[in-house]
Specification:
Two copies of one chain form a homodimer.
Chain A (H helix, E strand, L loop, with lengths): L15 H14 L12 H8 L3 H13 L3 E4 L5 E4 L4 H17 L5 H22 L2 H15 L5 H17 L4 H18 L6 H19 L3 H32 L3
Antiparallel strand pairs in A: 1-2
Helix pairs in contact in A: 1-3, 2-3, 4-8, 5-7, 5-8, 5-10, 6-7, 6-9, 7-8, 9-10
Chain A binds a DNA duplex (30 and 30 nucleotides) through helix 3.
Amino acid sequence: MPDNSKSQQKTAEKDLSAQIAQAIRDAILSGDLVADDRLPSEAELSDTYGVSRPTVREALKRLAAQSLIRTKRGASGGAFVHRLSYPEAYSQLATTATLLLSLNEVDFATACRARFALERGCAPLSAQNRSVDHLAAMRAEITRQSQPGLSDEAFCASDVAFHRALVDGASNPVLSWHLAGAVEGMQPLMNMITFRNRDRAEIVALHIRITDALEARDAALIDQFLNALCTVTLRQAEASEALHAQKNSGAPI
Amino acid sequence: MPDNSKSQQKTAEKDLSAQIAQAIRDAILSGDLVADDRLPSEAELSDTYGVSRPTVREALKRLAAQSLIRTKRGASGGAFVHRLSYPEAYSQLATTATLLLSLNEVDFATACRARFALERGCAPLSAQNRSVDHLAAMRAEITRQSQPGLSDEAFCASDVAFHRALVDGASNPVLSWHLAGAVEGMQPLMNMITFRNRDRAEIVALHIRITDALEARDAALIDQFLNALCTVTLRQAEASEALHAQKNSGAPI
DNA sequence: TCCCCATAAATGTCAGACAATTAAATCGTG
DNA sequence: CACGATTTAATTGTCTGACATTTATGGGGA
């Protein structure tokens, strides 16, 4: 009764390697396979699923690309269920975020509002849990940002580091992970903005106020200044955009 | 001077397929390849990089697993740079989040605080942008949650839908993406909690208040109730944990 | 006892072939 | 000349078999 082979059904019309990868992925996500468990060897898997070894290997590479497994060569080697580390998770999130924003026509304002909304959510926890180290890190970045003649790139990097320290103040790695991804993913969009000296001064001034508010553990004040920072950033992006549009329409021909 | 082949350097000691995947990934992320661009055929790639076709295929499967490319068979087929859709990005984020939490010994409290911190960040935007549709969706979920005899699973699902509607109210797809991933990733941890009837009533009551506050566009009130909801959830998780611990220590033997 | 080396197991890589699919070119016919 | 059916070519999907490389393990010799 069950039509075994041909299957004009739409159940799983994908590649064999994709099907096998999905099967193993399900086993991992459901907990059937736990961290550091060893998967069967490629030869055994190809036997189990009735496919050739290259096909199994393609499936394993798919899983490796998602950091679900890691492989080791040699005797007692093989594929093992991988315990995802925070740096790896951070990197994956950043990649996904970058793609989502850059390939998907997300405008800067939307991404920017999202980023500041998330960051404002961190403020109360950060006010509660921040240590002097976080304050020191933020003030160090403020000093760097204040240097004249800093490249836009360096200014942006320092800005990221400042906000990262602010978020890390919440002492919640999951929160840091989300925010790091959001900020990192925005970098390509952020790099299209040109910060004039006057704009930088405005930003640095707000950074100082935010740091002071964090030192005083005043969440409401942080929230307010972050909001102001969001507004300022949006305004500058708009100005920068207008500048580019002008350059692109006026200069040529 | 540049030792070309053997390379005892640590520059790129990885697999060939990983190196090739990285090269193509960089080309995509840097914008050299844009959405819907066609990559060279597998034969051309294997020629370009001086490796065999199976190796190239493994590299392409890695990229396909990250939704960076999609492939099509037949003449004029090939690998194309893929425009990541929100549902795909959402699915990837959820997978990463689930792995990060479940395989990495993240305790429920940390994940829960992160989730509510992010959600509180959405509150102001949601209060500003929510439509009547969002309110209706939330009230519909409240009705469902209030039904007696609902399974824990169904209750959780409704809870997720409620919060999703709340976040969608911000009308910011990037924000929705982040929150959806955070909430979805927490599901396995959430499912370990048993909600007693009294607890459910408490949660539903807060949901009602949150919806009312959203209708009134009162961001501060939403924030306050979300905070309360976080506290309640944490308390219930603690109680549930204690219950499990008791079961695991008392029942056996 | 300790060190060196052969062995085996596993992944990494290659080469070549065939199957399946799909778009486009070709050809035949009205 | 136009239009539809057929052939063709290009490309991915899969298989087979082989060899290279890495690494733990065990045995033999100093």
